[in-house]
């Protein structure tokens, strides 16, 4: 029976990573075992606790330690430390790896340390892994090659043109107007409002400019050296084609799994059993 989870803030430079540690063994055990450990990162909007039923509980049941975490822009750090997203996500993951290898060294197998990035974590955790060679495996659900390219693909051609024109005031006015336009999809309205909050700005234009920093272009992907598994869904239109681009950049260090049918939506929402089944096969084929 695993011990109860414990909040364990990991100190990063200039902020605190809010993490939850779910150990396999009681902390006061006489016979600590160094076990495989999964680090979980969330994406653009959801809380780390949302991964409990889909990933934390199944991994605990199969003998893994788990630690989930949130950094700037994500719910707890945005709310309690007032910090918007940062692109250099190794500032979040490296303190968590340090925490595991120092504070939890008796429980953590340093040769089997995997990082899982959910949703926009497909960018964030890929970026972190490029700068964190102590990770032995990287899992991305799904791949994000470039956030700016992906997000602006959801704009109408007219809005895209306005964004590219560089006219901040005109773009912001139009973007604010779509919030009260009944023709705008809820997804786009929500995406913009969430982006403004998470990037801590009132300007949609500034939000889009910031997303240009969230990219694996420019040699970042080449720095990811550990085996990488990418998942995507056949019906997931969040970052169309990006998983293939990340896979192409990583070459034979990576495998891409396309979920189909009910599991074919963003992060396999509604079909966690299928995600779990595929992950178990993956873990078994690598042990
Ligand atoms: C950390 O905060 C200090 C003081 O506010 C600032 O000078 C420095 O640039 C910050 N470092 C990072 C990595 O953000
Ligand atoms: C919404 O779309 C309809 C049909 O294309 C159009 O006639 C109407 O003017 C649009 N409304 C707004 C507020 O843009
Ligand atoms: C991100 O992008 C903005 C605008 O393009 C730039 O001014 C800023 O320095 C970048 N920040 C980081 C941390 O790279």
UniProtKB/TrEMBL annotation:
GO terms for biological process: proteolysis. SUPFAM superfamilies: alpha/beta-Hydrolases. Residues 96-182 form the Peptidase S9 prolyl oligopeptidase catalytic domain. InterPro entries: AB_hydrolase_fold, FrsA_esterase, Peptidase_S9_cat. One of its GO terms (molecular function) is serine-type peptidase activity. Pfam families: Peptidase_S9 (PF00326). Coiled coil: none annotated. This is Peptidase S9 prolyl oligopeptidase catalytic domain-containing protein. It comes from Exophiala oligosperma. The lineage of its organism: Eukaryota, Fungi, Dikarya, Ascomycota, Pezizomycotina.
């Amino acid at each position: 029976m695993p011990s109860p989870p414990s909040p364990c803030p990991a100190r990063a430079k200039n902020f605190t990573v809010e993490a939850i540690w779910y150990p396999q063994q009681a902390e006061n055990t006489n016979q600590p075992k160094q076990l495989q450990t999964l680090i979980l990162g969330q994406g653009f909007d959801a809380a780390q606790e949302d991964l409990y039923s889909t990933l934390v509980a199944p991994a605990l049941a199969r003998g893994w330690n788990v630690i989930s975490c949130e950094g700037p822009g994500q719910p707890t750090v945005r709310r309690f430390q007032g910090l918007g997203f940062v692109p250099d996500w190794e500032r979040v993951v490296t303190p968590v790896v340090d925490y595991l290898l120092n504070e939890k060294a008796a429980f953590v197998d340093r040769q089997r340390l995997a990082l899982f990035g959910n949703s926009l974590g497909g960018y964030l955790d890929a970026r972190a892994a490029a700068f964190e060679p102590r990770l032995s495996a990287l899992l991305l659900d799904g791949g994000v090659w470039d956030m700016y390219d992906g997000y602006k693909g959801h704009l109408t051609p007219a809005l895209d043109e306005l964004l590219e024109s560089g006219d901040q005031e005109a773009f912001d006015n139009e973007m604010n107007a779509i919030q009260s336009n009944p023709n705008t999809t809820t997804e786009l309205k929500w995406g913009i409002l969430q982006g403004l909050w998470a990037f801590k700005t009132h300007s949609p234009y500034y939000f889009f400019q910031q997303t240009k920093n969230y990219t694996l272009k420019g040699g970042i992907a080449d720095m990811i050296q550990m085996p990488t598994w990418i998942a995507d869904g056949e019906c997931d239109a969040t970052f169309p084609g990006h998983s293939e681009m990340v896979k192409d950049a990583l070459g034979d260090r990576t495998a891409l799994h396309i979920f189909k049918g009910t599991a074919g939506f963003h992060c396999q929402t509604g079909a966690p059993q299928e995600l779990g089944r595929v992950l178990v096969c993956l873990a078994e084929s690598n042990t």
